[in-house]
Each structure stands twice: as C-alpha cells, then as structure tokens.
Amino acid sequence: MQESNDIVITGMGVVSAIGVGLAATLTSLREGLTGIGAMKYLASSHRDIPVGEVKLSNDEMMQLLGTDYDLRLSRSALMGRLALREALETSRLTPSLTPHLVSSTTVGGMDRREAYHSGERDCDLVHAQIATHNCADCTDMIAEPFGTFASLTTISTACSSATNAIITGANMLRSRRADIVVAGGTECLSRFHLNGFNALMILDSGQCKPFDRDRAGLNLGEGAAYLVLETAASAQRRGVTPLCRLSGYGNACDAFHQTASSPDGEGAYLAMQKALAMAGMKPADIQYVNAHGTGTPNNDLSESSAIRRVFGDTVPPVSSTKSFTGHTTSASGSIEAVFCIMALQHQFLPVNLNWHTPMDDGIVPVTDSRVKTPIVNVMSNAFGFGGNDSSIILSNSAL
C-alpha cells in the first residue's frame, strides 16, 4: 500500500535510436536490436564514426508533431516535444493541471548555431539559428505547444543531467512546492560534442562493448525521455494507476578529474549508497542495476569497483543499455529510467549487447534477458563529467 507522500511515476515518453515511442522501444529492448550504426543526419566529416541516431529527419519529426516548418526548432527540441507529448498522454495529464517541467540538456540548440556557421546565413534565419542556442531556450521550445506549465527549469550537469532533473522534480514534490512534475532530458548529436569526445580519444570505431575486456570507448547517441512524477495522493485524486515508485535517489560529486572517473568510483559509490539509504533498502533488495556503462576503459573499471563496494560478493544483474542507444549524454538518465520501468513492468533484464570477454577485476554483465527472481527494485546510474554522479531506485508500484 502506497503512502500519500510516496513519489510515483504515472507516465513516460521516449525517443531514441531504438525507437520513437514506448512500443517500438520495448520491442527493440526485448529483441536485442541495437540502434547504433552509420551516421545519416549529422553533417559531420567523421562519417566513419558509428552513432546512435534517432531514425527521423527534422522535417519528419515536425510532421509527426503536426508542426509547421519552424527554423527555431533544434533537433533537441523536436525530440523533446515527441517524448514530452507521449509522457503527458500516458499520464492523462491535462493543461488545466499546470504541472512543473524540469528538462535537461547540454547541447541545447547547438545544431542551429552550427548551421549558421556552416554558411546558412540568410538574414531571415540569423535570429532563429543563433537566438535559440542556449539550454533554457530549448526547454521553452519543448514546452511551447503543451499549454501552461507552472514553472520551467533547465538542468545541465553533463551526463548526469536527466537523472538530476528527476531528482530535482522529486525534491519539489517532497518539499510540497509541486504536486506534479514532468522531468527528463533531451540531447541531439552535434558536431561540437562529437568532435569533443573524439578529441578525448574515447570513441569506439565500432559498436561499443561496455564491460568487455576489449572495450575501446563509447558511441555517442541522441534522444529524449520524460517521466511524470507526482505524489501518490495526487495520482489517487486523478484516478490514475502508477507505473512504479521512485523509492530513493542520491547525488555525489567526487571532483576527481574534469572528465575521468576516480579509480575506486568514490562518487558513484556515494550516490548508490545515498539512494539505498533514502529508500530504506539493503543492497540485497536490488534485483537489477542499469549501469552508466559507457564502454570506456576508465568508466567501466571505475563503475565496476563502485558496484562491488556497494554490493560485495552478491552483485545483482547489471547491464549497460548504451550498447542499444549509444551514450545520449544529458538525456541518458531519463531514457535509461524508462528502460528500467519497462524491466519492472514486463519482468525482463535488458541485456548488455556486444559483450564477449570478462574484464580483469570487472563485473560480468547480463547477456540473458530471462529473470531468475522477480524484479521488484531496480537502480539506475548516471555519472557526469567532474564526478557529478547520481543514482535512483525505482520499485514495483504494487508493493
């Protein structure tokens, strides 16, 4: 039985390289279909770098949204609108309820700025291409067609952004600043951040292999996902059935390095411990961990160390779903939260694609989607540059 002050998830929407919408996404996850492949939509000279692109052009996304051609709309905003629309529909939210929106991004409208600097400089386009660059503008454009939100907040903490958006929304509910919050993130591919990761020499020239001994780096991806969070009392008043509970969450920052994880995974360890403490759970209560699992030599070894510090000799099933979508950076936390909710709803383990050989001192990830024990509580990790690390725990709403 849920307490009235419990935080529950009542709706969700998702767009990524493995599908537009919940149904297509679930099919890809259950059938092990990756979305990582050759670059099609990003106008980069690095055509040999595999990426996890959403399989729609900007024009096709506008058509799906029923939107007239609008130069202001970055790819991040378009994907965000698709995911937000599905989240609102599945939660049966109406504009009169005026929820709060907490959205995360780091790229924002960078793709529009890049179009400007590539020579698309017609005078009529300049304002649309430059004035919509920043992250807060992206949030404004995502919210625009959906009526009035009580407030708009933008989070940008690199790869932990979307999970921190969820945490921010949960804190708004716990402090009674809100009854309903829509939280998540969106991120499109851009030449700037593709080139940045390439300069760090952490991109795999093939499909990424998280937690594999021969892992060579990550694949960048793009996408968006939003979750509708509300108190159990609010859901009861509205007559909606929760998808799951948000049982606990934690954030920590070890500030070990600008881009590298600490060898012992201190920040990751602290974030997971805080999430367990808030949930009032022991490590043995977790049946699945959706790892940050980027596929870089540094992250996977550091995260393995942190997971073993938390779970000891009884590590639950762990996988990285970035082998499906690529690393969607600021959107990854909410996209992977949707995957975790699907695992709870449908009782399967999202597998870790492309894994073949165990790492030295690393975890052995899930390669079989069948569950051995019922999945009741799942943990989702999202770790950002600068050691800004976050973890959330999602639980079966009926228990």
What's the helical proportion of residues? 25-40%
CATH topology of the largest domain: Peroxisomal Thiolase, Chain A, domain 1
Relative strand content: 15-25%
Report the mean per-residue pLDDT as an integer.
90
State the separation between the terminal residues, measured CA to CA: 7 Å
Classified by CATH, the class of the largest domain is Alpha Beta
Instruction: Count helical runs.
Output: 13
The main pleated sheet reads as: 11 strands, mixed
Q: Segments where pLDDT lies below 50 for 5+ residues? A: none
Structure write-up:
This protein has helices at residues 22-31, 58-65, 75-91, 110-117, 123-130, 135-143, 161-174, 191-199, 232-238, 266-279, 297-311, 322-325, 332-346; strands at residues 7-16, 19-20, 100-104, 152-155, 180-187, 223-231, 244-253, 288-290, 318-319, 377-384, 388-396. With 399 residues, the chain is α/β, with parallel strands linked by helices. The chain has 2 domains: 7-238, Peroxisomal Thiolase, Chain A, domain 1 (3-Layer(aba) Sandwich); 248-396, Thiolase/Chalcone synthase (Peroxisomal Thiolase, Chain A, domain 1, 3-Layer(aba) Sandwich), CATH 3.40.47.10. 57% of the residues are buried. The mean pLDDT is 90.
Q: What secondary-structure arrangement, pairings included, does this model have?
A:
Blueprint: E1 7-16, E2 19-20, H1 22-31, H2 58-65, H3 75-91, E3 100-104, H4 110-117, H5 123-130, H6 135-143, E4 152-155, H7 161-174, E5 180-187, H8 191-199, E6 223-231, H9 232-238, E7 244-253, H10 266-279, E8 288-290, H11 297-311, E9 318-319, H12 322-325, H13 332-346, E10 377-384, E11 388-396
Helix pairs in contact: 2-3, 3-6, 4-5, 7-13, 10-11
